[in-house]
Amino acid sequence: MPQGSASSGRNRRDGLVLGIGAYLWWGFLPLYLNLLHPAGAVEVIAHRVLWSLVACGVLLRVVHQGAALRRAVSSPRSFGLLTLCGALLVINWLTFVYAVLSGHVVDGALGYFINPLFSVALGVVLLHERLRPAQWVALGIAATAVVVIGVSAGHVPWIALALALSWGFYGYTEKKVGVTVPVVAALTVETCTMAPLAGAYVIWLGLTGGQSFTGYGTWHALAMAGLGVVTVVPLLLFNGAARRLPLTVVGMLQYLNPTLQFLTGVFLFHEVMPPARWFGFAVVWIALVILGVDGLRAGRVARAGRSGRRSGGWR
Fold first, then answer.
1. In a domain, 17, yes or no
2. Residue 217: DSSP 8-state
């Protein structure tokens, strides 16, 4: 086997392991967050921001991204975009933690299931991208599913929509930053911009006697402090996978996360799933299958086109 092929195959295997690890970590995150009772969602997020900043500070020295951090802070455009990313990230975290602590893990899973479909819609509205017919069909089916789930529940599925919107806009804003800011430096700036608010809230809780960090034993305090590691490690795993795997493979792996969250909510947390809700999720899954098959077909056509152009050049 040529050395280049062996290296490429090893990169693919390593990327697959890293990607599966990242999405398994995110998929089982509700189990960890459930250990943080009786802390409220806002307190959990405040500690998540502060302890993530500590973890990022350590990692910055390990991966030598201090110079990249300084460049990002000194650039008004990068700093502004990363500040917006930080705000969207906190909204996403807060919504997800609230979903877990209030017994709505399945709603959270729905948000991450419909996020790829929302990202497609975002491309149409903000980037003026042209959709293929199958993508339009998938979007229409997904919109129908959201209506069905909302009607069956008697209210708008705001948790799912908030998660899809915040994560979709976060991804869009991250793309605007581009590859000029590495992942650890970017996350450090994002958490730095949110840290003053998080710190002020933790101090206020301490002064008013409303905080749970030191009031429920050593293990509770350690679990809260562990939020930094819980946040940063899967991001690093995902970054390593994204650099080694084709985008189509990364796109398929992302469904591990909401699938595991869905299974956790239904079978471990015993959340109620009436028939109409099952039907709504089934419709979402049909839309995702259509979107996935269309993406794979489009990827094969693009690769065949590039191969044909190279062959034409060799002639």
1. yes
2. -
